[in-house]
Write a structure and sequence with these properties.
There is one protein chain. This protein is α+β, with helices and mostly antiparallel strands. It is 36% helix and 32% strand. The chain has helices spanning 22-36, 39-47, 118-130, 133-151, and strands at 10-18, 66-67, 70-76, 80-87, 90-102, 105-115. It has a 6-stranded antiparallel beta sheet with strand order 1-6-5-4-3-2. The longest helix has 19 residues, at 133-151. The N and C termini lie far apart (44 Å).
C-alpha cells in the first residue's frame, strides 16, 4: 500500500462498549480477525485481486502479519491495531482503537478509511459503502469481539 492509513479519506467509525479490560479485548480482537480470514473471505480476496490473499507473517497479529484482505501496519498492544489493504477497486484501512474507560470496561472503535479510484472504484464504493454492507460487516466484527471478550473475561 502506498499511502499511510491515516492519510486515506475518512469513511466512518463504529464503536462498541465491552465489559472486559483492554487486554482481554485485545486478545478477542486478534481471535476474531484471524477467524475473519476464513476460506470464504480468502476466495473473495482473490476474486477482487486483493494484495493479501492468505494468512502469513507473525502470530499473534503484529506488524508484518497478513490475512485475507489485510496486512497489519501497526500493532500497539493493547490499544491500537492498524490494518491496511489494496485490491482492484480500493486502497483502504481499518484502524482499531481500544480505550479502557473504566476498570474492566473498554470501548472498541473501528475507523474505516478508503479511496476508490476511477469508475470501477466508484461502482465498488456504491456496492459496498452505500449499500451498508460495510457497516454490517464492521458491526459484526465489533459484536464478535464484544461477545468473545465478555465470555472469556476472568471472574471477579
Amino acid at each position: 500500500m502506498s499511502l499511510a492509513p491515516a492519510s486515506l479519506p475518512f469513511v466512518d467509525e463504529h464503536s462498541v462498549a465491552i465489559e472486559a479490560d483492554r487486554e482481554a479485548s485485545w486478545v478477542s480482537l486478534q481471535r476474531v480477525l484471524e477467524a475473519t480470514g476464513s476460506s470464504g473471505f480468502a476466495r473473495y480476496a482473490r476474486l477482487i485481486r486483493a494484495v493479501d490473499t492468505a494468512a502469513s507473517g507473525p502470530r499473534p497479529l503484529s506488524a508484518g502479519s497478513a490475512f485475507p484482505g489485510f496486512h497489519v501496519v501497526t500493532a500497539d498492544e493493547p490499544q491500537h491495531l492498524a490494518l491496511a489493504g489494496r485490491h482492484s477497486f480500493s486502497d483502504y484501512a481499518l484502524i482499531f482503537h481500544l480505550d479502557e474507560v473504566a476498570p474492566g470496561r473498554t470501548v472498541l472503535r473501528a475507523e474505516t478509511r478508503a479511496e476508490f479510484p476511477g469508475v470501477h472504484g466508484a461502482i465498488y464504493r456504491m456496492l459496498v459503502i452505500r449499500s451498508r454492507a460495510h457497516v454490517l460487516a464492521t458491526r459484526r466484527i465489533l459484536s464478535a469481539v464484544k461477545r468473545t471478550a465478555e465470555q472469556h473475561r476472568p471472574l471477579r
